[in-house]
Amino acid sequence: MTDILLLNGPNLGILGEREPEIYGHDTLDDIVAMVREEVAAAGWQVIAVQDESEAELVRAVHRARHSTVGAIVNPAALMMAGWSLRDALASYPPPWVEVHLSNIYAREQFRHESVTAPLASGFIAGIGAYGYRLAARTLLHLAGADR
Ligand code: DQA
């Protein structure tokens, strides 16, 4: 079985209720289902992890290092100073795509620089939950599994 990691950082477990004017109405379960649907035809499975704690996210990246073919990562606020998550991702060999629901560049200055983004294979922001679908397609494409 081929697995990908879908990693979501702090406060993303309350999507749907959380500032819907910024983050939309989709819940995290909706997003996980969307990613599962996108990769199902290729026979891929999704390991979905959301946590408020950076330590748990670091552990999830470590666990996935050799057992997944790629990852979709929304580091949430850890994009700003999540240095241990950044270092865990630096040691994650497969391609991974950073996703932000909102357009972080159209928001407060403190959201304009992501410490994790320079390591990502790709970056998607500002198109809401649809960004996760595009990230899933990107991983399929990079693995040659979209043909
Ligand atoms: C976010 C953007 C971050 O700045 C913020 O801290 C989040 C969500 C997004 O998906 O738009 O929690 O990652």
TrEMBL record:
CDD domains xrefs: DHQase_II (cd00466)
Residues reported in the UniProt entry to bind substrate: 74, 87, 101-102, 111
A molecular-function term among this protein's GO annotations: 3-dehydroquinate dehydratase activity
Entries under Gene3D superfamilies matching the protein: Dehydroquinase, class II (3.40.50.9100)
Pfam families named among the record's database cross-references: DHquinase_II
Stored InterPro entries: DHquinase_II, DHquinase_II_CS, DHquinase_II_sf
EC number: 4.2.1.10
Keywords assigned: Amino-acid biosynthesis, Aromatic amino acid biosynthesis, Lyase
GO biological process: amino acid biosynthetic process; aromatic amino acid family biosynthetic process; chorismate biosynthetic process; quinate catabolic process
Reactions accelerated catalytically: 3-dehydroquinate = 3-dehydroshikimate + H2O
Enzyme class: lyase
Stated role: Catalyzes a trans-dehydration via an enolate intermediate.
Annotated HAMAP family: AroQ (MF_00169)
Homology family: Belongs to the type-II 3-dehydroquinase family.
NCBIfam families: PRK05395.1-2, PRK05395.1-4
Descriptive protein name: 3-dehydroquinate dehydratase
Gene source species: Actinacidiphila oryziradicis
